[in-house]
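Task 17 of the worksheet. Students: predict the tertiary structure of the chain below and write it out as structure tokens. Keep your answer in the requested format; marks are given for formatting as well as content.
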Amino acid sequence: MRSLAIFFAGTLMLCGTLLAVDPPDGDFPILGGSLGQTIRIAITADGRAGCAAVVGFRNSLNAPPEPDRTLSLAAGNTGFVDLNLSRLAPRFGQRVELRPFVQVTSGQCDGSVEVFEVFTGHTTASLRLFTGLSDSPKPGTPGLVPPPDPDFPALGAVRGQLVRLGVARTQGPPEPDTPGLVDPPEPECQAVLGLQTATATRSGRRSGSPSRPASSTSWISTRRRCRVRRAASPFALC
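Model answer:
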């Protein structure tokens, strides 16, 4: 049995960045922002097939501040829907609260949302909305499922920031019929880490091999050469 825990610290080296866990089925969290910020929803199509989704935002009255957009994505590609919060909070001291809205119409999609500064591109809040959401889940099963290996949501970064991917080695309990050993052989654990662009192009691949149970290794990608804000999805091949 393969036992591999993969985590990534979307390590945007800035103060105040917030990372959160998945919300309950169908409940997307409320995010707030103010003048000079943009809120972005990123939708990534499943790597084996494309997907389509209606994407937008809802205010406190459950009304869209802008018309919803329809994204139609090829396998592995990522699309974005941005909303400039300066339009809704035009003065300093004002703040607006919005809730992401996503309706998958075909295929399977992954979704994430983030708030970033317009002038610097630095992320101030980032969280995953769902992974593997389908338009027609089987009866009795939720639309949200644990992230399948190796699908992860998209995140953005700009010049001077770092993105860190980590892989940790774990070891499960022995099989019931396996005789106890003082020093049982340790199963091999290997992974290839890297980033995938919005057009499904993979770059910066590096192999990682944690040597002992509970040990870990990491890979860092620097965005020092980027002049514009870019988004990428981490990937891991085990």
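Marker's comment: The radius of gyration is 20 Å. Residues 4-174+185-237 form one domain.
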